[in-house]
Amino acid sequence: MSTETEVVVSVLKYLDNKSILVIGAAGFLANIFVEKILRVAPNVKKLYLLLRASNGKSATQRFNDEILRKDLFKVVKEKYGPNLNQLISEKVTIIDGDICLEDLGLQDFDLAHEMIHQVDAIVNLAATTKFDERYDVALGINTLGALNVLNFAKRCAKVKILVHVSTAYVCGEKSGLIMETPYRMGETLNGTTGLDINHEKKLVQEKLDQLRASGASPETVTQAMKDLGLRRAKMYGWPNTYVFTKAMGEMMVGTKRENLSLVLLRPSIITSTFKEPFPGWTEGIRTIDSLAVGYGKGKLTCFLCDLNAISDVLPADMVVNSILVSMAAQAGKQEEIIYHVGSSLRNPMKNKKFPELAYRYFSTKPWINKEGKVVRVGNIEILDSMRSFHRYMTIRYLISLKGLELVNMVLCKLLEKEFKYFHSKINFIYRLVDLYQPYLFFYGIFDDTNTEKLQKMVSKTGVESEITRISDFPYPLLASRRSRDFINGRDDFADDTRSWNRKIKPEYGFDEDYDGEEDEDDHEEEDRSLDLLLRFVENVFRKISKRARKAVRSILPVSISTKLVGFSVNGVLILAFLWILKAFLEVACTLGTIVFTSILLIRGLWAGVAYMQESRNNRINELADDPRAWNGVQPVS
User: What transmembrane ranges does the database entry give (predicted)?
Assistant: First the structure.
């Protein structure tokens, strides 16, 4: 038997009689990891699951209510039936703790003592993934929390491996081939010197003290900490707070690990499960899923990206498999190794494939809206540069917003609340685009040499090959389930386990070449730029009508019908609106006449000046050509 086969066989055997501490057990990946262990490795000794809660009882309640009730665990429930509760009681121990605190914030000292002497492996899946997270929160979880996990791991007598799950995008906005190499302490992406994690911690505390001393509101504090995180990240070359703090977390554990075996796992964009425990499971609307949902609902009519750039996506169950295989392969080796877990190098998918696949998917399985109607999708408009995005926003929304601002001024800021609301919405869009721009135009390819070696340790046959699959998957369609043959042009869709279309009746079938879709979508696009202004006009009319009816009702006899009062008031308001519109048009026409007359006058004056200039030039030319004309030179006497 080969060495590789020995390693493969040990993947499942490694889990036998092992105690594993899972940090951040309530998270998306952690849920899949726990389900996998319970399903395929019933001989595991113990799973310690660290959850943030006020006490042990609350943590257990949270595990039962928030985790076990998920559809993710239905396969495990079917496998064990009534014996599942007994299995969990024997194999799972819930711990209340917080990685932002030393010793993980453990309050049960007996349990802490047990873990220190029993835990064989630690998997840190805790993270805050918000790109613009508060700097104090992101630094506490992604950076200092990683150090707290490492320090606890070094206290554990039997721990042979620590798996720290990071992100492939700690590389920032690098392009080209990105290697599986570690970051040195204080290293930056733009060469700026002075990055000191202790100084960052001190800076955060000073800023918080300053804000509290000034009596700042919670909203002000939150925004200030978000801005601080983004500013510090960009100062050292990272595009956002998330990847900046994750990079510093890697620096901390890599520098201070001593002789502990360390795996730094860097997954790319994580989508729904490909195969285990069943295809298509995800939790909420995650990253790339939001694009699918927005497009399927008919709300996403344009998309900003470079069609020739590559989207590096990987199913969540394959990321979990990578964790398991790396644990078995690296336990006890007393070295640090980095694994890029992605698809951009060996199974690249360009962005231009997404619109095509999304259109074909939702044309075959259309979304059903709240009214029970089928949402018909059309071709999406691609904005391939920031310049085209700004032009699109100006034409579609900013002009209407300026119109609303003018109406608001005319009406003495009666629509101030609505104006501020829609203005904030547009600013929010710009903020999101600013945050996601580095990934919409990302040109990096993640080298996965180490991960490929890890894949070769997995047997090509047998049960191990199925439960430890790391790569060799078809392109994922925005976290939806479908077969490999669909990529090759066949339309044999597999059922989507998330049941996006569960309300669709069998008679709803739409041809992929339905002619009316594009026309209908074009009409919607033409009307979209006016929707905003029309909604404001409607809102102001309703608001004025309501106040006027209330005032008139208070001075009229009760015997007069409310409907009659409403009809009369609305009629008067409409006449007043028409009168105002007439006055506005008269003013506009008057101003237009003045402007037109001014333009004619200016053009007349300009023509006159030009005629005089031309006449003068002609006269000069005539004098120059006349030999009788004096040229300023006297003959010699």
Answer: 20-38, 555-581, 593-612
Q: How far apart are CA 460 and CA 478, in angstroms?
A: 28
pTM for this structure? 0.73
List of E strands, 234-329: 262-267, 269-271, 302-304, 313-315
Q: Which are the contacts of 275, defined by CB distance < 8 A and separation ≥ 6? A: 315, 317, 466, 469
Count CB neighbours of 485 within 10 A.
13
Q: Quick check: 59 and 104 in contact, CB under 8 A? A: no
* Active site residue ranges: 242, 246
Cα separation, 19 vs 120, whole angstroms: 5
Residues near 395 by Cβ (< 8 Å), separated by ≥ 6? 529
Q: Report the distance separating Cα 277 and Cα 281, nearest Å.
A: 8
Structure-derived torsion over alpha carbons of residues 343, 345, 351, 357, reported in degrees to the nearest 10: -50
Residue whose entry in the numeric block shows the structure tokens 């559809």: 71
Unique residue bearing structure tokens 């609307």: 285
pLDDT for residue 307 is more than 60: yes
β-bridge mates for residue 303, sequence order: 382
Whole-angstrom CA distances from 488 to 169, 274, 310, 363, 600 are: 30, 18, 19, 17, 65
Tokens of 316: 């969540």
pLDDT tens-digit map of 595-624? 878 887 887 788 787 778 777 776 766 655
